[in-house]
Amino acid sequence: MSEPKFIIVVAASAGGLSAPTEFGTEFNQEIDASFFIVLHLSRTGISDFLPHRLKPSISLRCEIPAEEMAIESGHIYMAPPNQQLLEKRGKIILGRGPEENRWCPSVDVLFKSAAAAYSTRVIGVILIGSLDEGTAGMLAIKRSGGKTIVQYPNEAEYPDMPWSVISNMEGDFSISLSKIGEAILPLTQTEPEKIDAPQDVIIESEIAERVVVDYKNIKQIGEKSIYACPDCGGGLWTIHNKGKMADRYRCHIGHSYTEKDLIVKQGEVLQSTLWAGLRIMEGRRNFWKKMEDDHSKRGLSRKETSYMKGEEIQVPVDKMREVLYETQKKL
User: How many CB atoms are located within 10 Å of the residue 21 CB?
Assistant: First the structure.
């Protein structure tokens, strides 16, 4: 058993199930590197399916890692559903913390933990996918001295993830999927200088690992914003990114969002809240109507009750429904 010289972290989202297989055929057991892959797929238990999908065409050992498993050269480790996949020096950590960018496992969590632990020995790869998950992680790798590779967006059915990286930072390679393997092999033959990752990258990795979760540490990397976390209701802190990338937002519990993910999550919570409000109002209308009917059967007049008629609450119910339908059109 030997710790690899290089750590290669790979991410794909919508439509990306076959992408790791296509460039993974370039490698064999001689490569002095380990691969870590996050695929945004179903949140249900399909973990065994993923290694079986890769094994027939890839000579490297492919597996779902266990907690504190040693990192070995020539292995592919695939993130299990509903757990964060992180790296510490020489071992794997499976986190059960909150979602980041609405995902668990999260690409950014994996990439930042790799950058914090291995800095210049990390190679980040972003394949096809939707929204902008992975951009912050790729920037962390770049700032830590690692190398970044992005699949050509124009050959992807879902180009958002690669486009986001290209638009927000200067990467090392933007190439066709078929050329990614060829680009990785020479990089694994180099001798990178050993440097420490930036302190903010280390802090964010520790937060994701649930080692450090408090106001003192979140204040080191961000400033208090006026926005609330749509997941837990706590205050969000603004993380000002280096370079061209837009601000990100993080609460001290650990939820983290890019600007795009935050607006999507806010929309989801808004719709859920409006539907819940409508259900409550309709329930109250129906219950008031029942009470009025009961009183009527007992011969009590309206003057002898304090209950609003069921049809009177129908007006705000109808208005609430209109607001909900109009909101859905605009989200």
Answer: 14
